[in-house]
Amino acid sequence: REYADLLDKIESVIIPIYTEKTGKTPEDIAAMLAKETWMSGAECVSEGFADKLIQPVKAMACIHSKRVEEFEHMPQSIKGMIIAPQGNAGAQPQPQAKAPESQIQSQAQSPVTVDENAIRARLQEEQRNRITGIQNVFSLSGDRYASLMAKCIADVDCSLEMAKDRLLAEMAKGITPTNQLNGPQNRAEFHAGMYTGNGNITGDAVRAAVMARAGYEEAQKDNPYNCMTLRELARISLVARGTGVSSMNPMQMIGMAFTHSTSDFGNILLDVANKSILQGWQEAPETFDAWTKKGQLSDFRIAHRVGMGGFSSLRQVREGAEYKYVTTGDKQATIALATYGELFSITRQAIINDDMNMLTDVPMKLGRAAKATIADLVYDVLISNQKLSSDNVALFDKTKHANVLEKAVMDVASLYKARQLMRMQKEGDRHLNIRPAFVLVPTAMESVSNQVIKSVSVKGADINAGIINPVKDFATVIAEPRLDDASQSTFYLTAAKGSDTVEVAYLNGVDEPYIDQQEGFTVDGVTTKVRIDAGVAPVDYRGMVKCTV
């Protein structure tokens, strides 16, 4: 049976060959092999198993007679061609049926032969690929299912797909469905929605749930985590990543959620805190953005700025003459960045207590404090009358800068004189023609300032006299309470936003707070750092006028 056993093993190889050659179905070929079907040469050509019928003598020379003993259903007529009949030496074999000449000539010239060595090599290659594939599948689970892998490899009939099915079946042993209520009989009463985002199903759903609770996004109706506490969401984040939490107490479990490298929980809390900080920054009621100049610096070194009158008039370039380089001079304003920041912690106790304030209110207030810090720096330039680094003279100086109006009150006459001071500023002999765009006043003067600037007529004049208000709407009133702390009667005129007055520079132009987080060592939780890199400095005095009583 050795040869028959070999045929059994290579059946999967030869069936596709015969199917393609004859046009028969694989089931028909398999049935013929199972019945040990024998055909004459003419029948082989007729059925498509052979291309050409050759001479019987040459065909018989290719047959090993010992093989006859291995077959049970060989026709007697074929046996007679190989083995002489017993007891009748004169018996002649039956003549071989000959295929029609036209059929023989129409077939291909080369006969179909089976190379046992090639088939055996192909079979061995398929076995090697099967074993390698099974080993790769089981390698994902370590040595946990080593015995099952050995059984699959030993079973030559076990394909790669069958090995995968066996592995999944083994892994599923002892596991029961977590949603047993969601069967056909209970589906009407129970529904568990599934929230999907960018492929990280659990992480996206947890993030959406926390954002909704914080008020930054609308709650998704199909999100099954909407009503869960922070403690429950921490557990879900770990379980979804394959981390067992059944043996952990709440402090350990939440600590693991913060520190586990594959857990999304810490990053989700960081995202919520960052949203809160940015909301606090953006909604902070600060006024400096309306009139200051925004700049950017790429590092913390001292940078130089050229003021409004940095260059005089352009020189004429005659025909054929060369252009000349301008010189900015040594007297330039300087500005440098500084870092401002604070720390706060999101503790494990806050997560266990489901304290959303640590994710919303505290970061939001820090965002407001960050912007207030910049505002303090800006208005301190005005209130303290800082010196300009370009000439080492106070920003507001009546003698050297001609930008101080004394004995000024909030009326048309004082505003007209202050506007003239700004309009008459020069660079050398050239007038700069700077126009005021804002009036910075303490809140105590806000009402009277709006009345004077927005009135059609001058206060005290007869309404029918036709006297117009010469300063009507010439500037926008900005009331700043920090000015009240210094004086309730002093006010300032400034040029349009973007002019060289007071510059607020940010590192690489990032004008929002930066948040960072790390696991705390001195606290049970994570420490969050809020910082902003900014620099504030006066650039030029000619775009500002100070009015004092």
From TrEMBL:
Biological process GO annotation list? Answer: proteolysis
**Region: Disordered, residue numbers:** 86-113
Feature: compositional bias, Low complexity: 86-100
In the record, what terms sit under GO molecular function?
A: peptidase activity
What span is annotated as the signal peptide, if there is one? none
Q: Which Pfam families match?
A: CLP_protease, Phage_capsid_4
Report keywords, A-Z.
Hydrolase, Protease
Composition bias type Polar residues, residue spans: 102-112
Read off the InterPro entries from this record. Answer: ClpP/crotonase-like_dom_sf (IPR029045), ClpP/TepA (IPR023562)
Q: What is this protein called?
A: Clp protease ClpP
